[in-house]
Amino acid sequence: MYRQLGLSAEVGGPHTLLDGTVTEKSLRPHRDDVLLAVVSVLAGLAMWSLGVYSSGDRHLLPAWAALVPLVVLGAMELLRRTKPRLTLAVGTVGVIADQFTVGSLATVVIFTDLMYAAVVYGKPAMARRLPVTTGLITVVVTIASVAWLRTPQALLIGVVTGIVSFAPALTGATLRNHREAAVAARLRAEQTALLAEMDREQAVVAERARMARELHDMVANHLSAIAIHSTAALSIDTAETSRDALGVIRENSVQGLAEMRRLIGLLRDAGAEHEPAAVPTLDGLEALLGQARTNGSASGLDFVLHDERPPGEPTAAPVELAAYRILQESLTNALKHAAPGTVTVRVARAAGLLTVAVDSPYGERPGPRAPGSGAGLIGMRERAELLGGEFTAGRAGRVWRVRATLPAEERAVKA
């Protein structure tokens, strides 16, 4: 798991991983292991020179033979982090061989450290098996000693076996579990922080996209009308045309400025309490089409509304807002691009779905009446998809058709 995350969860040495993998830099002995090996061997040599033996009644081998397991196990201390399996195997053979000599307490102590290191630095499978194995060995040795010697003192053999093998293995397993838990907690904290940062960035991007759609839908309609009528005023040099065009320009500029101020106020006071702003709904379609008729009269456009919604069926507020903005942007596009004729707006609701459609005359024109960025279709599609709906726009014969199908019920709206 730690490798997949690209993190080296270290236990003990700086280059030994939790799964027992050893990096190239860790092949040389750790300085603490060198110090431990030197001190252990020197302590064993001092006790041997003073005649301090763990079992002085054994005379199968000369006294100096006890130094062989001592030196071998001392050398294994240098590899306790990098080769835990090897050191445990050699240490087991060495401590058994020590039982045929006068014995050295330092050899036994070194073996307990090798057992501990095998659990802490070994592979996970070995770290799980050793406490169980040494526990079973302790039980078996205790039972066998009592059955063979039939004296209460035979229990001491089992106790010593447990102290030498089971106790260090259990201690190593406990320490390893604590370290693994600490590493796992750190990784979870890092992952949580990373996910939180990703969520924050996604929320910022989504909010920016939402503000861009709102700004485009609110202001583009008014600015397009201003551009169209200013062009008409410049092209047709009559007092009446100029007066009508200036009236439309003034009306749209005032409305656009008011909506722009409202949006800026919402952005500036996002963290403060303020009065809720009125959210456009489909009940304002007549006013929206009335404004479109005024703006499109100079271009030979007429606008007709067919509202086929059954009365008394409420629609979720996010759906109404999205439908209103889609129709608003479609009418703005019709003012820019449509050929003279009738623009038909249809609103219907059936089977839990709200459908809005705008059909505008499509004809060959030298160019749009007002410049556009192409973001309108993208914004309409995004609004529909965010609610789990569908959006289509394209030419059907001599008609440009925009159609959006949205879930009308609150439970169908995506979070």
Describe this structure in words.
Helices cover 59% and strands 10% of the residues. The chain is of the alpha+beta class and 415 residues long. It folds into two domains: 24-194, no CATH class; 281-415, Histidine kinase-like ATPase, C-terminal domain (Heat Shock Protein 90, 2-Layer Sandwich), CATH 3.30.565. Strands 1-2-3-5-4 form a five-stranded mixed β-sheet, covered by helices on one side.
Write a compact overview of the structure shown:
The chain has 415 residues and is of the alpha+beta class. It has ten helices and five strands; from the N terminus they run ααααααααβαββαββ. The relative contact order is 0.07.
The counted number of beta strands is 5
Return residue spans where pLDDT drops below 50 for at least 5 consecutive residues.
Answer: 1-18, 411-415
- Tally of separate helices: 10
Percent range for β-strand residues: 5-15%
Query: How far apart, in Å, are the first and last alpha carbons?
Result: 32 Å
**Residues in helices, as a percent range:** 55-70%
Rg result: 42 Å
Average pLDDT for all residues: 80
